[in-house]
Write a structure and sequence with these properties.
371 residues, alpha+beta, 2 domains, three-stranded antiparallel sheet, eight-stranded antiparallel sheet, AhpD-like
Length: 371
């Protein structure tokens, strides 16, 4: 998405040559996924800082309510530090920033170091600045967000990672990430095939009451979904294991797969069933919880060992069988396997968390935590 903005010196000539696709916008780059324009009139320089406005038109956007087809971004450049950041972003329902505005974020993002051939070349040449930029590039890797994404979410980066000469500003204590758009969106009932409608009605008539979460994607294969949801029905509503342990097993699986929807749904259910929130928080951070009860320790050891080593040692297996019996061990493995299957489906479908923080489960290794 980002191209060399040193070419901005030539954009006015390009505009005169006829590459302007719409009033005020000049074509900068074009790919199979998007077309990027810049607005030459928006280029401003003040000391070591510069600003520029960019417009991205997306291709292949799903024809669904609320889908965005273009986005306008205002960038700021720190020419001395060799960095850029987004000052604001607005997404629109129609191409070329037309139609109603869908999402507007006016909060500046983190500063990102630019590399040769990037946006920041519009800053021009400065031996001092070039040396400082080179030093910074050698000192750390640039973290850049994937292009063509929609919503924004903030994380707090521990201050230990922001100290020293490499900390360009107080903004180093926060980072702005983008959240990828969902795939496999909900299919309206009147648009379903007869097989999908039958499978959906069976779910709606059961204890779940509605098609949601992983089943929004799974209904693409209605017979498979029907078989899967029967396993889930046993695990959630019939399994004789204590619900506290059942939900504990679910969040251990969610942590292993980094599955946001599963964590959002089952962390709170685990706490409601009696699991100490501190235990769940430790699992979220990728560390062994302190203060677990005996049965919680056995569940944690068994499932963590299985997920990491793909098996169980004699000691771990014997403790689990002694506590829960062979049937209980199978149920625990079934819970982890079931939520592992759903995690793969939802990770590929990018199933969104319906409320609260869009990313309640922090990424590992733990450099940042949700704010």
């Amino acid at each position: 998405m980002h191209r060399c903005l040193f070419a901005l010196l030539c954009l006015f000539a390009a505009a005169a040559a006829g590459s302007v696709r719409a009033a005020g916008w000049v074509l900068l780059s074009e790919t199979a996924a998007a077309t990027v324009y810049v607005e030459p009139a928006s280029l401003q320089r003040s000391g070591d800082r510069a600003r520029l406005t960019e417009l991205t038109d997306y291709r292949g956007t799903p024809d669904t309510p609320g889908a965005h087809r273009s986005a306008r971004r205002d960038y700021q450049f720190d020419c001395m530090e060799g960095a850029l950041r987004t000052l604001s972003i607005t997404t629109y329902a129609a191409p070329m920033a037309r139609g109603p505005a869908l999402v507007t974020v006016d909060e500046p993002s983190q500063w990102l170091l630019f590399t040769p051939g990037s946006l920041g070349n519009c800053c021009g040449k400065s031996p001092v600045a070039d040396r400082r930029r080179a030093d910074r590039r050698r000192a750390r890797c640039q973290r850049n967000a994937a292009p063509f994404l929609t919503l924004r979410h903030r994380f707090v980066i521990p201050r230990a990672f922001t100290r020293g000469e490499d900390a360009m500003s107080e903004d180093r204590s926060t980072a702005t990430y983008t959240i990828a758009p969902q795939r496999m969106l909900e299919i309206p009932l009147d648009k379903m095939t007869p097989a999908q409608k039958k499978a959906a009605e069976e779910i709606m008539a059961g204890p779940r009451g509605e098609v949601k979460g992983p089943f929004v994607a799974l209904i693409r294969s209605p017979e498979f979904m029907n078989r899967v949801q029967k396993v889930g029905e046993y695990i959630r509503f019939i399994c004789p294991l204590d619900k506290r342990l059942n939900e504990f097993a679910a969040i251990i699986g969610a942590r292993h797969w980094g599955q946001q929807f599963e964590w959002w749904a089952h962390y709170r259910q685990a706490v409601e069933a009696g699991l100490d929130p501190k235990i769940g928080d430790a699992v979220a951070e990728g560390r062994r919880p302190d203060g677990m009860a005996e049965d919680e320790t056995i569940v944690y050891d068994l499932l963590t060992e299985v997920l990491v080593t793909k098996g169980a040692s004699d000691t771990t297996y014997a403790r689990a069988v002694k506590k829960f019996g062979e049937a209980g061990v199978i149920d625990l493995l079934g819970i982890a396997g079931y939520y592992g299957l759903l995690a793969m489906v939802m990770n590929v479908a990018r199933t969104a968390v319906p409320e609260g923080k869009p990313l309640p489960l922090p990424p590992l290794p733990l450099y940042a935590t949700p704010k």
